[in-house]
UniProtKB/TrEMBL annotation:
Residues reported to bind ATP: G390, E391, P392, D414, T415, W416, W417, Q418, T419, D508, R523, R534
Protein name: Acetyl-coenzyme A synthetase
Entry cofactors: Mg(2+)
Residues of the AMP-dependent synthetase/ligase domain: 91-481
Originating gene: acsA
GO terms, molecular function: acetate-CoA ligase activity; AMP binding; ATP binding; metal ion binding
One of the record's GO cellular component terms: cytosol
Catalytic activity: acetate + ATP + CoA = acetyl-CoA + AMP + diphosphate
Entry's Gene Ontology BP terms: acetyl-CoA biosynthetic process from acetate
Amino acid sequence: MTVQIDHALEEIRRFRPSPEFAAQAVADEHLYEAARADRLGFWADQARELLRWEKPFTRTLDWSNPPFAKWFDDGELNVAVNCLDRHVEAGLGDRVALHWEGEPGDRRDITYAELTDEVKRAANVLTELGIGEQDRVAIYLPMIPEAVVAMLACARIGAIHSVVFGGFSADSLASRIDDAEASLVITADGGYRKGKVFPLKPVVDEALAKTDGGTVRNVLVVRRGENEIDWNAERDLWWHETVANASNEHVAKGFDAEHPLFILYTSGTTGKPKGILHTTGGYLTQVAFTHKAVFDLHPERDVYWCTADVGWITGHSYVVYGPLANAATQVLYEGTPDTPHPGRWWEIVERYKVSILYTAPTAIRSFMKMGRQIPHSFNLRSLRLLGSVGEPINPEAWIWYRHVIGGGSIPVVDTWWQTETGAIMISALPGITDLKPGSAQVPVPGVSIDILADDGDPVDGENGGLLVVTEPWPSMLRGIWGDPERFKETYWEKFGTAPDKSMYFAGDGARRDEDGDIWLLGRVDDVMNVSGHRLSTAEIESSLVAHPWTAEAAVVGAADETTGQAVVAFVILKQSQEEAVSTLEDVSEVLRKHVATQIGAIARPRQVFVVNELPKTRSGKIMRRLLRDLAEGREVGDTTTLADTSIMQVISSQVR
Ligand code: PRX
């Protein structure tokens, strides 16, 4: 209900693009017209205009075996050449590609020529280490330039990278290395976070001790934290001893447009993370197009900053591939927003004269809490466009972002997309769209979105329903690594297997208002969104029951003012263990820590409640909806389908 009221109030707020902004905007109405008139032709034009092809394609889309799409598949290109060499050849070698800033305050400006050089050296090292086309390379690095170099070096030689976020635990890293059967891990001794060095190489050592396959032959280590590490002389190599001494001559070859580029693991509704597979030609086309059109990129004068870590899809598409394909100058920052002082981000905006900032609502909300005086003690007048991603942005945060950070008159674009979609799918286009706070607004040109009821029929009017993508798009996932069946079932068979019912099911609820603008309503499955990061209830539940004290566990995502959602767990202890357990507070602490160690700190529950029972239906299914009511402090909803309808009273009294 609150959602509805909120929307009714917000609908009166619209912001027209200013005439000055519109006059210089990259995107204009023609894009929509062209895409409406000939969708595939539109994408083919983008692919030809935005990228360099070693061999031009003649076929745009092969959809003869859905849901396995092939885009531009008789063409050949090299992703690294598109992001680097061609810019240097066009005379842009001296343009800064990365203004890098480490958390302790060390800085490096890296030009396109220097970045190209470094990627060529790294590519030579990878080849010397026996990494060939299609081999998998796990990358477990902090936000340092070498992360970008490592990804592009893989792309250059046709190897497949699997970047694992540096906050993940040894277990999580091990399962990802195993699933992809990686031959090489690229890591650092450590990285800086909140003023301290966090170890990475020791986590890799621990992960490799666990992986049974033993597919990893080498570990390439960047020196960053200068922390003590163990060394396995047969397996480990220093980056500064190999890459720095390698030749900077490297001739890149073109690969098929459907050659795999990367695997990125993300949470689904089951306990096992899915390795989302992306390929080259279509992916690069859509990330380059959206990066340019949605962020109104003028590469010759803009300084762009996306605050995401390269360990997430946003870092892949809008730190590495989109901006570099478009020859942008960007900021890369290693650390946390509040180290060593709460104005760190704004100091960076001022120092580099950032003009485009792309971040997540959770960050905006935590800045809101700290107050406007912090950003206002810096000069933010260089900003001319703001973006948001990762979760719905509430209208108040949107308005604060525009006014306090943006000075009140610059566009804010809210971009909806997913690891699976590879690139932005729904967003306003600045300079064209009248902006509406809280709504992600309209599909980008060339993307077809609909909202359907559970049975696959169209929803009535402005009713909420399920968000679907009705036509294949260039940057769509090509599968789940090693699991084509799961790919089909999870995403394409929600409404049945008949050809006219096969559509991409995103897992998000949405509604369309009377103007046709789309409002995202959150996940409809057991996936949580904590600070814009995806977590699965099942994954955390299985971690909790792996602890010797726990008999059963249920996890819900409860609304949280800052992080959007927070993990709240309900556990039943094993009777045999109850004596071993001292106080319930201790249990809660121990289990919170256990989850953080098993999965990573982002998965640590905000609360763990010890209860005697969990609410179950007669068929034994846990009713998480009721637990969510409890966790959010609401009146508990309809309990009539519970096997024992009085159980919620018992649980409520235990939780209080
Ligand atoms: O629920 C949606 C939410 O984040 C999910 C995708 O998460 P992930 O694959 O980790 O990618 C995040 C960054 C692209 C979606 O299913 N989401 C993402 N952006 C938005 C959003 N929800 C509402 N509004 C958004 N702008």
